[in-house]
Specification:
- The protein is mostly beta strands.
- The protein is built from no helices and 64 strands.
- Strand 15 (about 180) and strand 16 form a beta hairpin.
- Residues about 1-15 and about 700-705 have low confidence and may be disordered.
Length: about 775
């Protein structure tokens, strides 16, 4: 389709699209042709152009008169629905997933003519560059994202000769979908990893990863810095996604500031964002173009909106792909996948900022989860844990503001005057319907009675959440509503307790007794640490199940019989199995240090999950390794392969530490899951999990480990077979026997359907541990020997 004529122009008055401080000027539809991303350019005569990515190439559209755009040139390209364009000097650089490398369009002779060429690599990558998803250009360097090279890492090119780029290097950390570069720092959107990265690219031949940060939707598409380079903005290309802001002034403590949507509850998908004079100009698929005032990045306010997609809001990859807000006239050009090119005139205004703190009128305590509503436009925000709220709107005026929270009388403040560009501070006290009480406690060692400093205490129910840490004397105190709560308490080096339906009415301090011993079921955060070269590392949370090849890949639940429902798993993003697994490297989980010399004969126990499955014809060839380190030496406890029995289930492990290393006071467990693929298209699905870690005393388990009141074993020792009799007191509800040898290797597992079972016929001579577990929390071990 040739477009050298002006197509249908629609006047603003004929449109029913939602709009706020953005005026419609014109539209060029592209029937039968989808649009992709968009850029802009100004020639030597001052003519302004939209550079429009289409399904069959790049259109150069003169928008000098925004009401009368005209297509000047249609530059053919490889057919593809994905096309991105950026400019450098008088050249446009065009990428596509259709292949053929980097297209370079010489714009220096506009408005008369243009020319085009292709770059497919030089030097170490000569002739190898083919498909590229996106790019960014900064300070004379191009950064190519999501290409066929280096697993989709950013490929760096020197543009000193704009028509003959020179390959310089590529970034660590695997696939980057899109990104932003400034001052030799690259902020990468790792869409499949669900995080953004900060990479030092000052040495183009050897970039260095500085840090990473998970984003709310864990499908990080686009990044952009504010004008001062103190705040990073990100977008997640998933349903019900957010534009999110982060304080990046301390790279060791990146902090989320705010997250916003155009139409909350619509499930719409955000795509690309750009910064201009402390405004974010955003393409938001079915919500169209949005402008946010981000002068106060912790309180982003929607001050401009034009919906290019009249077919309806909601989830879906339709509507506005990209916007370009940098033309000198201020004209915004936007590409709508379905409806063509839009030329728009924005009016940039600052928001009316309303901020404050909500507290309890009697105690002065900060109140979280208070709903703050600007009545009329019904703009709502929730207060944070410190009682703080930040909200606002575009239209100045006098409003009523309502504050509501369960257990408190609602409060409405009338005649609140809000002015553009002005911060109005409104602190509010709410009156409790039910009098609050003081709940005090003391956390102590159950054996010695000594205080446990900094112990973690989490008190919560369906409506209220009170996390607290004990002080240096083991004491804590909270002002809270009376009622029934769950209480979880623990500290590294002690066994966690979890109480359900505990009645809190005030009164005398509650004594929390913790038994000494290393135990972690991950309902509390004791500080396990992550490392690795994969973009998809370990996460603590309630596992989100995924399925690959008809079997579970990421677990859908934690191990039964412990506190809560949390565990550690690799990249807990859910979705398709291949979208959130370990890719292109290693994911390593390290325990906090523990002192094994406190035990006579320490045994380490845990349950682990491992899955590795073929994907798109790529074989399952990955591994999980579990190591034990004593500060001097590291020993391998076990390796799980794709062919290891019981993969894609929780598998208990029992290992006597002295069989591997000398017990020391500085030990840790290390779990590493590895994807051996050399590119994103060569990966298989690989997942790991860890739950119910503990150290126990071998010589103290069920007396001499030969018999317990739950299992009777005879004969013991045995020569050929051993018969086990399970007590009538043990429910056979998911009851499982696990037999391990002296090295901790699993020899046999069996689900119990009857109370008598015979084992051992094929065992070699040696020592064995037989553990019994069921769904009701029964967990016992006996020791026997085959002669």
């Amino acid at each position: 389709m040739k477009k050298l004529l002006l197509l249908i122009l629609l006047i603003a008055g004929s449109r029913s699209f939602a709009q706020l401080n953005i005026a419609f000027r014109s539209n060029i539809p592209y029937p039968g042709n989808q649009l992709a991303n968009i850029g802009g350019y100004v020639d030597n005569l001052g003519n302004e152009y939209a550079l429009v990515g289409t399904s069959d190439g790049l259109d150069i559209v003169d928008v000098t008169d925004p009401a009368n755009p005209a297509i000047s040139f249609s530059v053919p390209g490889v057919p593809s629905n994905w096309r991105e364009v950026k400019t450098h000097l008088s050249y446009a650089y065009v990428t596509t997933e259709g292949g053929n490398g980097l297209q370079i369009v010489d714009l220096s002779n506009l408005p008369t003519n243009i020319s085009t060429s292709y770059y497919t690599g030089d030097g170490a990558i000569a002739g190898q560059l083919d498909n590229i998803h996106a790019l960014h250009i900064d300070a004379g360097y191009a950064y190519l994202y999501g290409s066929n090279l280096f697993g989709g890492a950013a490929v760096i090119l020197n543009l000193a000769n704009p028509l003959s780029p020179v390959y310089m290097g590529y970034t660590p950390g695997g696939y980057i979908h899109d990104g932003y570069v400034s001052n030799d720092t690259l902020w990468g959107g790792h869409i499949y990893g669900g995080y953004f990265s900060c990479i030092d690219v000052s040495n183009k031949a050897n970039p260095v990863m500085i840090t990473t940060q998970i984003t709310p939707g864990q499908f990080t598409h686009n990044t952009w810095l504010n004008d001062a380079h103190t705040v990073l903005f990100t977008t997640d290309e998933v349903s019900n996604s957010y534009l999110t802001s982060y304080d990046i002034t301390d790279l060791n403590n990146i902090t989320e500031l705010d997250r916003v949507q155009v139409t909350p509850g619509s499930q719409s998908i955000v795509h690309n964002t750009h910064t201009l004079n402390d405004f974010q100009i955003v393409s938001w698929y079915r919500d169209g173009v949005a402008i946010y005032d981000v002068a106060r990045p912790g309180n982003m306010i929607l001050t401009g909106h034009y919906d290019t997609y009249a077919q309806g809001a909601g989830n879906g990859f339709d509507g506005c792909w990209g916007v370009y807000p940098y033309l000198p006239s201020g004209t915004i050009v936007a590409s709508d996948i379905n409806n063509g090119l839009y030329v728009l005139t924005p009016t940039y205004i600052r928001g009316c900022y309303l901020e404050g703190v909500v507290t309890d009128s009697a105690t002065g305590a900060s109140l979280n989860n208070v709903t703050v509503t600007i009545v009329g436009p019904n703009i709502t925000k929730q207060t944070k844990l410190n009682g703080e709220y930040k909200t606002g709107l575009a239209a100045a005026g006098t409003y009523s503001v309502q504050f509501t929270k369960a257990g408190y009388f609602p409060k409405t403040i009338s005649n609140v005057s809000l002015t553009n560009g002005v911060l109005t501070n409104l602190d509010v006290e709410l009156v409790s319907i039910v009098a609050q009480v003081t709940f005090a406690g003391h956390v102590q060692n159950s054996i010695t009675g000594s205080a446990i400093p900094n112990a973690i205490v989490h008190i919560y129910n369906a409506t209220d959440d009170y996390p607290v840490n004990a002080d240096a004397n083991g004491d804590f105190s909270l002002t809270m509503f009376p009622g029934n709560y769950n209480i979880d308490a623990g500290e590294w080096g002690y066994r966690t307790i979890c109480l359900s339906n505990f009645s809190i009415q005030g009164g005398s301090p509650y004594i929390v007794n913790l038994n000494p011993g290393y135990y972690d079921d991950f309902i509390l955060d004791f500080g396990w640490t992550n490392s690795g070269t994969s973009g998809n590392l370990w996460e603590r949370g309630v596992p989100v199940g995924t399925t690959a090849n008809g079997v579970p890949s990421n677990p859908g639940n934690d191990v039964t019989g412990d506190c809560g429902t949390m565990c550690y798993v690799t990249d807990n993003g859910g979705g398709s199995a291949s979208a959130n697994d370990v890719d292109l490297g290693t994911a390593t989980l390290n325990s906090p240090s523990f002192d094994a010399t406190l035990y006579i004969d320490p045994v380490i126990k845990y349950s682990r999950w491992y899955f590795n499955g073929a994907l798109n014809g790529n074989p399952a060839d990955d591994t999980m390794h579990v190591y034990l380190d004593n500060g001097i030496t590291t020993a391998l406890l076990e390796t799980a392969y794709p062919t290891t029995p019981t993969n894609h289930t929780w598998v208990p492990g029992i290992f006597r530490i002295a069989n591997y290393l000398t017990p020391t006071n500085n030990m840790k467990l290390i779990m590493t899951v590895k994807d051996t693929a050399f590119g994103i298209n060569n990966s298989s699905v690989v997942e790991g999990g860890l739950d119910k870690f503990e150290i126990v005393e071998a010589v103290g388990i069920n007396n001499d480990l030969k018999n317990s009141n739950l299992i009777a074993a005879y004969p013991s020792p045995f020569i050929q077979n051993i018969t086990l009799r399970i007590s009538e007191s043990v429910e056979l509800d998911n009851a499982r026997l696990t037999v391990t040898d002296i090295a901790g290797r699993v020899v046999e597992q069996a689900l119990l359907t009857q109370r008598t079972i015979t084992l051992g016929n094929n065992y070699f001579s040696g020592m064995y541990f037989i553990s019994l577990q069921n769904a009701k929390g029964v967990n016992t071990v006996i020791k026997t020997e085959k002669l």
